[in-house]
Structures are given as C-alpha cells and as structure tokens.
Amino acid sequence: MEKLYDQDSHLRFFTAKVLSCEEAGSLHAIILNRTAFYPEGGGQPADTGMLGGLRVTDVQERQGTIFHLVGGPLEPGSDVEGAIDWDLRFSRMQQHSGEHIVSGLVGRMFGFDNVGFHLGSDVVTVDFNGVLSDTDLERIEHLANAAVYENLEVEAFTPAPQDLSGLSYRSKIALDGNVRIVRIPGYDACACCGMHVARTGEIGLIKLLSGRRHKGGTRLEMLCGYRALQDFAARHRDMSEMSVLLSARLPDVPAAVKRLMTENDSLKKELAAMREKRLSDMVSETCTLWLAKEKSASGWVISKDGLEPSELRRFTLLLTERISIADSDEGAISESEKRPDERIGNELRRRPDWLIALSANAGGGCYYVAARTSVRKPVLPPTKPAVAESAIDLRQLAKVLNSACKGRGGGTPELVQGSLEADRMQAENVLHSFL
Ligand SMILES: [Zn+2]
Question: What is the 365 CA–ligand 1 centroid distance (Å)?
C-alpha cells in the first residue's frame, strides 16, 4: 500500500488497482495498491471523494491497511480512478498547518503543551495546559500570521530512528521507530501524520477567535484560510446590517448600541412610572365614584376593562391599600382636608369589607382580582392584622365564580385572582349574591 498522500499532500487525482472488495454492512470496504485518500488520524478527519465512480464516505487505517468505504462493489484486479474532495482537504490542511504554528509559538513563548486538538467542520479547538491572557493571544496571533507572510516551506519527513533522538520536537507521547516530523523552520517541529500545506503562505489568515479557561488551562478557538475569510465575511455582513439599522458608521456601532441600551433602560423606567401613575389616578377616580354612591353592601364590584392581569392586580392592591390607610390616621386630619380616598378610609361604615375588580379582555372573557380591605393595615406591620369574625374567605368567592363562569384561579383568603371565559356582565351577575 503506497501512501501517495505522504509523498504529495497536493495530489487530488490518482489511478490505483483494486486489491480487494469486501461487504461492510451497507457499504463496501476497498483496499487499493496505492491511495491519495488520507485515513482518519492525528486529529484530522478522513478524506472523502470518488473512487471508480462511487462515493467514498470514509477512509480508515487498521494495522497498516487502508480501507476505503464506498457505496458499491469494485472489481478486484481492475484499475480505478480516484479523486479526493479537494476543497475540503485543502481547508483541513490550512487549519492543521495553522494549528501547528500556533501550538509551536505557545510552546516556545510560554512553555505550554497542546493537550487537545479538534479539527471540526467549523472551528478548530486547541487546548493548552496553561493560562493565556488576551494580550498573549494577540501576540500569538500576530506572530502566527508573520509566519504565514514569510511563506516558509512546511517540511514533512521521517528521520532514521538513530537521528530521531537528536531532534527536538513536540509530541504528546514518547515515540521511537518511524516517526514523521512536520517542521516549520523557526516556528515548530512536531510528530504528526496529518496533511499539511507545502508552504505557510497557503494557510492564509490565522484568526484566533476566543481563548477561555478550560480545565486549568486555555481552550483556543481558531480559524484559518478560507474558513477565516468566510467568518470575516459573515461578521462584516452582520456589522454592516447593524450599522444600517443603527444609522451609525461601522466603527461607531458599539457606542450606538450602548446608547440604545441606556435609552431603553430609562424608557422602561419612565414607562413603569407612568403605568404606576395611571393606576394610581384610576384608584383615586374609583374612590370618588364610591363616595358619590350611597352604599351599604359589604363587597364592592369594580369594572376596569382593558387592564392586563398584572395591572389589575396592582390596581386592586393600590385601591385596597389606599382605603385601608386612614384607619390609623382616623381623626388626625379634618374631613375637608382629606382626599376622597382618605375619606372612604375614615367612613368605616361605608367602606367595603372586600372588593373585586373585573377587566374584560380581548378574548371575550375577563380577568378578576379580589382582595379584603378590612385586614390591611400597612401602618402597623409588626402586629398581625386582626381578621373580623365575619370576614369573607375569598377562595369561596373564587370557587363560585370559576364554576359559574368557566374560570380558573385562586389564592389566599385575603387575595384571589384568575380569569373567566364568561364575559364581565355574567361575572357581575354571579357576584350579586355575595353583596
Ligand atoms: Zn499535526
């Protein structure tokens, strides 16, 4: 088995003789007398391509024999044409050679070893057993690209075993015998069986994308050559789109985003304050309405259509709080000075024991929130508010409402909330029995 790829990493087409063809599940495993297909190994995936008109989906080496997995049988003894998927192979060579330069630099500058290498279908990850700062990464990236511009020859050779001991090279394990060395003069020498470019200029741009802490060391993500170019094009497209959306020049995009975020924060605060003010005004209006009526009922049904459940809840709580406040201040302020809602608080006989707010929603149903008023005395938080013997358990009310109006919801004896499928008028009719 002649390994043509070892002699020439740029060989795309070749002719070989089929030595054997065996079924392997749904595929056929072909052995050739020579091949340019690189079998998976050394962190580099297997080549794919065409062989004798059939698709090669995988190439594996077992005990020195290389098996090409193809979609059909090939006649043993026949000559076949092979073609590897060159774009994919070349991209992998760019990534692999770029990785060697970076690993060589990290080893020489910082003394850290490459302890993991993954050549995936998108980014390449390399793990080092030491921590690299952002500044370190910038220096490494700069020097790695300098190695590209020097357009150095990438040497791949297998020294005689007696010469190997005299060589200094990176290796994950102690090696002897026939070891293939890949050397980039001045930058790296490494034991490697993978495929490499012929000169460093073929690698193109080496871009380190990120370096993050990983198992006490650093996991580096990087791209080389066409992949780096594609990534740059995608990033540039994104940034240009953002630049148009923000009406900012490219260099001003980050500042424009920060400005937008600050604006958004203050708008959110403003909106929250306005919502609170609107609800507070609604509460005052509602109190005035109550005062205008002569009431003796224990409960109070209020309609506030168009409020979302959270707003309705806030409204109910504000109203409950407002008309409960005056309990402790009773007599402290003269009637004429009090706001209408404070007057309700003082007019205990007229104040409801509980109230329920209903809000018709767009779906034809309504939301409800009910609260007891008589037990809320926020001025005296340490003492547990006294509950009147006759106080209604609002869970009972919610239960009746839910079953009569196809609803769901519940809560505590003092506060319940939910939603009903029936409309608000129907809910009001049901509530009459509680007043
Ligand atoms: Zn390698």
Answer: 68
Structural class in CATH, domain 2-84: mainly beta
CA 155–ligand 1 middle distance (angstroms): 12
Strand residue runs (E) in 304-406: 354-360, 366-372
How far does residue 83's CA lie from ligand 1's centre (Å)? Answer: 23
- The CA 51 to ligand 1 mean position distance, Å, reads 26
Token pair listed for 302: 């209020």
Cα–ligand 1 centroid distance for 193 (angstroms)? 7
pLDDT digits (tens, 9 = 90+) for 95-147: 999 999 999 999 999 999 999 999 988 999 999 999 999 999 999 999 999 99
Say whether pLDDT at 377 is over 60: no
Q: At a CB cut-off of 8 Å and minimum separation 6, what does 111 contact?
A: 130
Closest-CA residue to 66 (of 17, 93, 30): 30
CATH domain 89-245 topology: Threonyl-tRNA Synthetase; Chain A, domain 2 (3.30.980)
Region class of 233: left (phi > 0), else alpha (psi between -120 and 50), else beta: alpha
Mind listing the pLDDT tens digit for each residue in 47-88? Answer: 999 999 999 999 999 999 999 999 999 999 999 999 999 999
- CATH class of the region 274-434: alpha beta
Gap from CA of 41 to ligand 1 centroid (Å): 9
Q: How far is the CA of 196 from the centre of ligand 1 (A)?
A: 8
- Dist. CA 82 → ligand 1 center (Å): 25
Q: What is the pLDDT of residue 296?
A: 63
Q: What distance in angstroms lies between residue 400's CA and the mean position of ligand 1's atoms? A: 75
CA separation, residue 182 to residues 55, 119, 122, 156, 186 (Å): 30, 17, 24, 4, 12
Residue boundaries of the structural domains of the chain = 2-84, 89-245, 274-434
